[in-house]
Amino acid sequence: MKILIIGASGMIGRILLPELQKKHEIITAGRNSGDIRVDISSFASIENLFKEVKELDAVVCVAGTTFSGPIQNVTNEHLISGIQNKVLGQTGLVIVGQHYLNDGGSFTLTPGKMGELPAPQNTVKALANGAINSFVTAAAMDLERGIRINAVSPGLVSIIPPQDVLNAYFHSIEGTASGEIIKLGY
Ligand SMILES: NC(=O)c1ccc[n+]([C@@H]2O[C@H](COP(=O)([O-])OP(=O)(O)OC[C@H]3O[C@@H](n4cnc5c(N)ncnc54)[C@H](OP(=O)(O)O)[C@@H]3O)[C@@H](O)[C@H]2O)c1
Q1: Measured between alpha carbons, how far is 129 from 77 in angstroms, rounded to an integer?
Q2: How many domains does the chain divide into?
Q3: 22 C-alpha vs ligand 1 centroid, how far in Å?
Q4: Distance between CA atoms of 97 and 19, rounded to whole angstroms?
Q5: In terms of Cα–Cα distance, which of 85, 90, 79, 88 is closest to 151?
Q6: Where is the signal peptide (predicted)?
Q7: Tens digit of pLDDT for each residue in 97-120?
Q8: Is 116 helix (H, G, I), strand (E, B) or coil?
Q9: Domain span holding position 106
Q10: What average pLDDT does the structure give for the chain?
Q11: Residue 172: which CATH number?
């Protein structure tokens, strides 16, 4: 398969990249890293990305930052930045990418445990992750040409066995599931 990974230089990306590279053709993208430059907080940048990479079978997003801290410290900028970077970033890849993906292709987004099981001081993360979960469930019903979509929703990745992280992404990329929120480390 030809797979685009956005955020391959990050913590999760560094787990995925070497294993996916063993079996698939991988193209990586990030703001300052990877084969191609993209800033997923910009819809125009996402559009340029898909004009550049063609014939993709899978898109995996392991990028998108949000503020962590007590609700008393949350600002409008934190809300906007979390929504722009993570929610609009990850979902924008689907909104644009659906028109470019090969038949039977897949999207794998990465929200996180805070969307379903929030811990204190994570309101913005909970907001962003919950929005992505809802989007994935709904988008799976609408995507055409056999295109699938799933969310991998990890807890703290540093304390999850790397093989579990890999299995979750492989389940989405290489399996047949669609509309699943794949939970790990809960
Ligand atoms: N790590 C965890 O424990 C954990 C748990 C649950 C959920 N998650 C979620 O999983 C995703 C990845 O987490 P991570 O810990 O691997 O992140 P990370 O270590 O901070 O790495 C983020 C990666 O994404 C790229 N990136 C960041 N913002 C971008 C943007 N606007 N456009 C394009 N690329 C961008 C970065 O590369 P450049 O700097 O080159 O852009 C980097 O490769 C995040 O959405 C995070 O919230 C992480």
Answers
A1: 17
A2: 1
A3: 22
A4: 24
A5: 90
A6: none
A7: 999 999 999 999 999 999 999 999
A8: coil
A9: 2-184
A10: 98
A11: 3.40.50.720
